[in-house]
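tool_call predict_complex ligand=lanosterol
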Amino acid sequence: MRAAYAKTRHERKHSEDAFLRAQYDARRSARGLETKTKTPSAMEISRGEKEGKGVDGEVVRRAMRAGIEYYRGIQDEDGHWASDYGGPMFLMPGLIIAANVMEKSEEIIGEARGREMLRYLENHLNEDGGVGLHIEGHSTMFGTVLTYVAMRLLGKAADSPECAKTRKWIIDRGGATQVPSWGKFWLAVLGVYEWHGLNPIPPECWLLPYWLPMHPGRFWCHCRMVYLPMSYLYGIRATGKPTALTAALKSELYAEASYDSINWNTARNACAKEDLYYPHPWIQDVVWSTLMKVEPFLMNSRVRKAACEDAMRQIHYEDENTRYVDIGPVNKVFNMLSCWFEDPDSEAVKKHIPRIADYLWVAEDGMKMQGYNGSQLWDCAFSVQAIVATGLADEYGECLRRAHDYIEKSQVRDDCPDVEKWYRHISKGAWPFSTRDHGWPISDCSSEGLKAALTLASMDEKLVGEAIPVDRLADCVNVILSYQNRGSGGWATYENTRSTKWVELLNPAETFGDIMIDYPYVECSSASLQALCKFSERYPDIRAKDIAHAKKTGRKFLKSIQRADGSWYGSWAVCFTYGTWFGVLGLIATGSTYETCPSLRKAVEFLLSKQQENGGWSESYLSCEKKAYHELRDKDGKPKPHLVNTGWAMLALIASGQQNRDATPLHRAARCMLSQQYENGDFPQQSIMGVFNANCMISYSCYRSIFTLWALGEYCNKVL
Ligand code: LAN
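tool_result ok
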């Protein structure tokens, strides 16, 4: 595998697919299974191409069967689909640094994990020696410095070719003083960067009155939960013990003549141009320099002690209410480290360690730390909807029953204690993105969970198992309704929008955009509206007035954020095809038809205008970053279709009734999809499709099955 990874990215991807296929075939033959169905040949699919005719329904059904056969083969015993949720390159180094600072590298990492982690890091070195923010991105100081440090901590020699090349990348661009603030923070914790070379993160912010728009309790939960332990660690200047390796790193990482000659005051605001997605507005310079002046008085003061105690109480609350999984990979490691600095022998540290495994995933490229503890519920809810859409549910009852069981078991049944005191939203009845243990409720995960549950509830119990009782579904409706924002009428992710967008001016993370508050999104709003409407259809008497009101105001919101070209910007996957799929389905759920709604017609026009010669659609991650449509292209500059984008576009078009106007674009799209299926029923894993904070990509490895099957299902049953 190594040799393959040293080749170009294109070849690298190709070998990943081959590896996955081989792995799957091996698993099936080990279980004594053979691939029973044959996928359609390219010949069969292309028949009728010239006349713009539909694909033979039998051919589509055979392809869908093969696809589900493959997909149910990788379903977990408990009913969910485990999949690689990697992508970001700045996560695992944090864990490795923390393990080192806690002097627990042996226990937390150990020989076997260490070897696989190193393999991963080396596999994702770019050709120029640097490392991106995510696996497909251009080299950044953040990715490169953290990877370099991680490789060194995992035992790689400074003069190894990999380290030498990576170090050269860093030094050529001004050295590690140019790393963005989160990188500076990790280096300071490790003891290879000075704390006064960092802009302050005072824990005293938590003591401010809540009515202030910049109270951290009003921030987006991910921002809040990361800066919470950071403020504690900053407040106590949590630093690992100096070792021979940290001394070596101090001399390796910097471009200055010596570590002692570094100007830490200028380093505070330095950031490599490769990393600068969100440059500081000037107001931050004023804020940071004022706080720098105050900091010496706060340090060691009684106020600091009280603030740190308050932060620590909140850290324990988060740990206990997520069963030590924590909301994400960044606060997981920071919280663990905070607990260790508070008391290295505490129960909390002991409980943290086994739950590190929840974030680790080993794949063909080595061991990685995932962007979450998985995407279990989210994928499972979509998978159910996709399989049911194929019309083949009767043949896959066992698979659906198990998925149903997973959905039932992962619904959150209670609120966290004293929600308001701890700045939490209610969770009773919600669904999480991953697991019940994690438990943070999310508007669109609740909605997709509810949609899947309602779909299953309308099917034969003997086939798919017992339906979730209606009072529990009503609890979910209650959460979804509570998420709607009074002002905008839209839905945000985990909580309501609690402050104004002006707070974004204080975003100190140069690499991420839109992180300060929980904004309303098209995805969350549309999914919530779809779920509420579906619930109302089945239970018209429950919360009828509230749902009707939500529908009216939510619909207005969707229209208000549609772009002039008819598209919607997707914030959580790539990009306009994703956003537009949600936009279209949201409008339709709330009453639009093609004939009566100009917004819907515009959206359809937009999608049709982006269909490629080859029949497919594709978008590059650059769409997210640049907020403008960017197609994926091959080496010769020809548009290259992507199964997942094609799936979203087809789903939106079919929902709008495109088949009644002109089915040709749909036939072409279906053909484009079918011609890419492997013989074992799987589809190729193409370029990365998930995103967060406009700039960092994340893998959704199940999407290639989910959205192809779903779109083919709708095509087969509504178009042909
Ligand atoms: C996710 C994953 C799921 C995603 C959807 C449900 C798909 C979306 O519709 C709403 C937002 C949400 C819940 C989401 C938000 C940001 C997350 C949590 C992530 C993309 C997974 C990882 C990311 C998190 C912020 C990564 C950790 C990095 C930091 C910068 C803190």
